[in-house]
Design brief:
The chain is mainly α. The protein has helices spanning 2-8, 17-31, 34-42, 49-71, 83-95, 99-117, 121-128, 131-152, 172-189, 195-210, 234-237, 243-268, 280-297, 308-313, 319-329, 336-340, 344-359, 370-386, 389-406, 415-431; strands at residues 77-79, 156-159, 163-166, 302-304.
C-alpha cells in the first residue's frame, strides 16, 4: 500500500485503492462492447474476427497499462470507434487497400503520433483547430457511425435511384436491432453501468431463441492471434498515395484523444488553476504508443476512450483505474464463443446509439455566426455522405478558412486553420 500511495499519490488525489478498483470496473463495463463490436467491423476488411478479438483486448490492455503507469491518469484506451470504421470502409473497402497495408498506415501514423507528442507540433495542431470545428468533428463522426449502424441493422438499404431507402422494418432482424437500440438508450439514460454491453448481450440471447443467431457457448481457450499478429506492412504503406491516409489517421486521433483528455479532466478535477492538465504530454505519448502497439498486434488505431468518464464519476482519479481496466481486458479473449454469437443487428444498434451520443456535441456550435456554423455543418454532413471521416474534416477546414477570409472575419490567431486548410486542399488536388 505504501508503494501504491507513493507512486499513484492516492491521498493527494483524494482517493483510495477500493475506489480506484471500483472505478476501473465501471469504466470497463461501459467500454467492453468494443470486444464484440471491433471484430465485427474489421471482419468486413477481410481480417480474421477471432484474431481481431484477441488483438482488440491486447491493444486495450497495453494502452491502458501505459496510461496508468506512465501518465497516472484514469483514462482507458482501446481501438477507437469511428477510426475502425474509417479503417474498414474508408481505406480497405473505399480505396481497395489490403488490410495488411492499412495496418501499416496505422503503424506509421502511430510513429507520427509519437514524434508529435515529443515536440510542440501536436499541441500546435490542437490549438490551431477552432473549438466549433472540434465539436463538428465529433458530431460528424457520430453521424458516420449512425449511417453505418443503420445499414448493418438493415434499417436502411442501398437504392440505385435514391442512394438509400428504408429497409424491411417488419423483418425479425430489423425488429431485434430496434429493440436493442432502445434497451441501450433506456439503460444508459438511467446511468446503468455497461448499458451498451448489456443491450448487445440481451438482444443476442433473444436472437438465439428466435433463430437469428447461433449460440456456441460463452468461454473457451483464447483464439489464435497469429493471422493478425505482426501482419502489418509499413513498407507498402510508405507510399505517397497513402500519405493522406496516414495524415488523416494522425489528425483524427490527435483531435479525438485531446478532446477526451479535456472532457475527462474537468469532472475529475485534474485541471489546475492555469487551466492546464497535469501529465498531458505523458497522456499524449501514452496514446501514441498504444496506436503503435495496436497495429503490431493487429487492430485499427487505439485511442483514449471518453467512456473513461464513467470511472471518473465513480471516483477514479489515478492510473490505478486504467490499470484495473487493462487487467480486465486480458480476460476478454476467453469469451470468443460469445462474441461469435453476436450478429450485426446487435452491434449495428450499438453503433447507432454511440453515434447519437457523439452527434449531440453539434449543439455546442455557435449557431449565431454563419461563417462558423456553415463549415461546421459541411464537415459533419460530409463525413457520412462521402463515407469518409478525413474528407469531411478536409471540407470543414477549407470552407471555414475560405468563409472567414472572404467575409473579412479572419482573425490573426486563425493562421493555423488556414495552414491546415491548405494542406487538405493539396491533399484533394494531388493525393485524392
Amino acid at each position: 500500500m505504501n508503494v501504491l500511495e507513493r507512486y499513484f499519490k492516492l491521498k493527494e488525489n483524494s482517493t483510495d485503492l477500493k475506489t480506484e478498483l471500483v472505478a476501473g470496473v465501471t469504466t470497463f463495463l461501459t467500454m467492453s462492447y468494443i470486444i464484440f463490436v471491433n471484430p465485427s467491423i474489421l471482419e468486413n476488411a477481410g481480417m480474421d474476427d477471432n484474431a481481431v478479438l484477441v488483438a482488440t483486448c491486447l491493444a486495450a490492455a497495453i494502452g491502458s497499462l501505459i496510461m496508468g503507469l506512465y501518465a497516472n491518469l484514469p483514462i482507458a484506451l482501446a481501438p477507437g470507434m469511428g477510426l475502425n470504421a474509417y479503417f474498414t470502409y474508408g481505406v480497405v473497402i473505399g480505396m481497395g487497400i489490403p488490410w495488411q497495408t492499412a495496418l501499416g498506415a496505422v503503424f506509421l501514423s502511430g510513429v507520427g503520433f509519437v514524434i508529435l507528442s515529443l515536440t510542440p507540433a501536436r499541441e500546435w495542431i490542437v490549438k490551431a483547430i477552432p473549438r466549433d470545428l472540434k465539436y463538428a468533428m465529433a458530431s460528424g463522426i457520430g453521424l458516420f457511425l449512425v449511417i453505418i449502424g443503420l445499414s448493418d441493422a438493415g434499417i436502411i438499404v442501398d437504392n440505385p435511384a435514391t442512394l438509400v431507402s428504408l429497409g424491411d422494418i417488419t423483418s425479425p432482424v430489423v425488429l431485434l436491432a430496434i429493440a436493442c437500440f432502445f434497451i441501450i438508450a433506456v439503460l444508459d439514460t438511467r446511468k446503468f453501468p455497461g448499458a451498451i454491453l448489456v443491450g448487445i448481450l440481451a438482444i443476442t440471447i433473444v436472437g438465439n431463441f428466435t433463430g437469428a443467431s447461433t449460440f456456441n457457448g460463452i468461454m473457451s481457450a483464447p483464439p489464435d492471434i497469429s493471422p493478425t499478429l505482426f501482419a502489418f506492412d509499413p513498407v507498402s504503406a510508405f507510399d505517397l498515395t497513402l500519405a493522406a491516409v496516414v495524415i488523416s489517421l494522425l489528425f483524427v486521433d490527435t483531435f479525438e484523444a485531446t478532446g477526451t483528455f479535456i472532457g475527462i479532466a474537468q469532472p475529475a478535477g485534474l485541471v489546475n488553476d492555469k487551466g492546464e492538465i497535469p501529465n498531458l504530454s505523458r497522456a499524449m505519448l501514452s496514446d501514441s504508443l498504444a496506436t503503435v502497439a495496436g497495429a503490431v498486434v493487429g487492430t485499427s488505431t487505439t485511442t483514449s476512450y471518453v467512456e473513461s468518464v464513467a470511472g471518473v464519476k465513480a471516483g477514479g482519479r489515478t492510473g490505478l483505474t486504467a490499470i484495473t481496466v487493462a487487467t480486465l481486458f486480458l480476460f476478454g479473449p476467453f469469451f470468443a464463443p460469445l462474441a461469435g454469437a453476436i450478429e450485426s443487428y446487435a452491434t449495428g444498434a450499438a453503433l447507432v446509439y454511440i453515434g447519437c451520443v457523439m452527434a449531440a456535441s453539434i449543439a455546442k456550435i455557435d449557431w449565431e455566426e454563419e461563417t462558423t456554423y456553415i463549415p461546421c455543418l459541411i464537415m459533419a454532413v460530409s463525413m457520412p455522405l462521402t463515407f469518409s471521416i478525413a474528407t469531411g474534416i478536409g471540407f470543414g477546414f477549407i470552407s471555414y478558412a475560405f468563409l472567414k477570409i472572404a467575409s473579412g472575419k479572419y482573425a490573426p490567431d486563425q493562421v493555423g486553420i488556414a495552414v491546415l486548410a491548405l494542406l487538405f486542399l493539396g491533399k484533394f488536388t494531388f493525393l485524392n
